[in-house]
Amino acid sequence: MNSPSYIELNSKAFENNLVFIQRLIKKGTRISSVVKGNAYGHGIRDFVPMAESYGVDHFSVHSADEAKEVLETKQNDDTEIMIMGYISNEDIEWAIENNISFFVFEFDRLEAAFYAANELDKKALIHIELETGMNRTGFDHDEVLRLIPMLIEHEQSIEIEGICTHFAGAESIANYYRVQEQKIKFVELKQLLEKSGVKAKMEHTCCSAASIRFPEMHGDMVRIGILQYGFWPSTEILIEHLKSREDKSEPLRRLISWKSTIMSVKQIEMGEFVGYGTTFLAQRDMKIAIVPIGYSHGFSRSLSNTGRVSINGVRTSVLGMVNMNNMAVDVSEIEHAKKGDVVTLIGRDGDVEISVASFGELSDQLNYELLTRLPAKIPRLIN
Hints:
Number of strands: 18
CATH architecture of the largest domain: Alpha-Beta Barrel
Radius of gyration: 24 Å
CATH topology of the largest domain: TIM Barrel
Number of domains: 2
Number of helices: 12
């Protein structure tokens, strides 16, 4: 069955972005590709094999269900998976069985890991997350003191893959002082662990923004999310990066395009309303096209009367309310618009681009939010 819309992923754009990231980070630092949120809306099942084909061999997810999807999708036996957030105690045994590492940031999970590892007679692969100022998850100083003897006592049950933390808002200079304090705390807590005999295979602290802003913290691995998909963590980070470069051109390329087709075309007369309610009144005779995409597909209702799409290389406007399953767009100036014509919702159409940023600004959504809200059921195609 044909879907009312589809997403295209540009593999060459990913290759371009990966090369940019590799040049950005220090030599020898590993890249973990962050694919939480269904690979930021790009689709785990399509994105992971594509990334593997360019040499990516480590993927970070938020939860165990995402880890399972990567496990079922990955093509290479050596590809590693790391759970940064939610995993129930009941699923820890599954993670250990499948060599999936996971963050440990509270004692209940740690004890569950000890128990499951002993039951399986196989070591749990853990990353010790330190609380340095994000105040979300992680062991603080007093908890680290309690943690150390537990780790030493149960060293036969665990493999400490990493020591890590997460910087709070590295994409904004407003958080500079806060992140500096976090850096100091991380080093102090890491040294406390190491002096007590607790050592990890690697340390990792940097997301996309921190990888650009704090190169001294690259450590052994960086966790790269939004950058690999061709987006900047913030405009501030983009400007800061370009200021230090002679070449001011955009170094990243977007992977994603989202497209639909015209479902029908009709004429309306001046004085007629379009769609539900009375939010759009035609002030002239018009030609409109109905597109089978609505808010249930990820095209926000807040884009009613403000959204833009492109048809046949012409940018045009959404008319009236975005419905659950369709919307109307103005094709009065698109002379040959007809049923079946491609409608670009996000991406490039000839000389016209409907960017995720402009899409997001009109609907008051972050790039991250808009992308991750794209339904998983939309077909993804690699080109």
